[in-house]
Write a structure and sequence with these properties.
Layout (H helix, E strand, L loop, with lengths): L2 H39 L1 H8 L7 H23 L5 H24 L7 H28 L3
Helix pairs in contact: 1-2, 1-3, 1-5, 2-3, 3-4, 4-5
């Protein structure tokens, strides 16, 4: 069997998977920037849209929005070169699972006032699962493309 054709196919597959991973991650990062800006500029409307109590949390929403923007900036090297900059990608995926689980637990056991956190939990857990699957496939394809 000609391994040159097989090697070329796996490199092509790795490039395709990298493009797909970067697209999904780019959509996620864009949505995080929009939510972060929304939390900073208009925490009242974000709290109402999420069904969360506003009186005690308005300033916390602004701080959370700033932390989202900081996380996106720290994640950019991983988006630009996911295979060479693995640390932000791995930490980001694990962080999404962690935050999604925390939001889910708070929504389920924090009383009726925190039920709105379920949307944040779903957002983080769905993107965490999608990015984990895509990143694992990308890393596997890259590894298999090397002789």
């Amino acid at each position: 069997m000609d391994h040159t054709l097989n090697l070329g196919w796996t490199r092509g597959q790795a490039r395709t998977l990298e493009k797909r991973y970067r697209q999904v991650l780019g959509i996620n990062l864009l949505l995080l920037v929009l939510v972060g800006l929304w939390a900073i500029l208009s925490p009242t409307t974000l709290a109402r849209a999420a069904g969360l109590p506003l009186e005690e949390t308005m300033h916390m929403f602004r701080a959370w929005g700033g932390m989202l923007l900081l996380a996106v900036m720290l994640y950019l090297p991983g988006w630009l070169s996911p295979l060479k900059t693995r640390w932000p990608n791995m930490v980001g995926i694990l962080g999404r699972f962690g935050m999604g689980t925390l939001f889910l637990l708070m929504a389920l056991f924090g009383g009726a006032a925190l039920r709105g956190l379920l949307w944040f939990a779903l957002f983080d857990l769905i993107f965490a699962a999608a990015l984990a699957i895509l990143y694992f496939r990308l890393a596997e394809a890259e590894l298999m493309s090397r002789p």
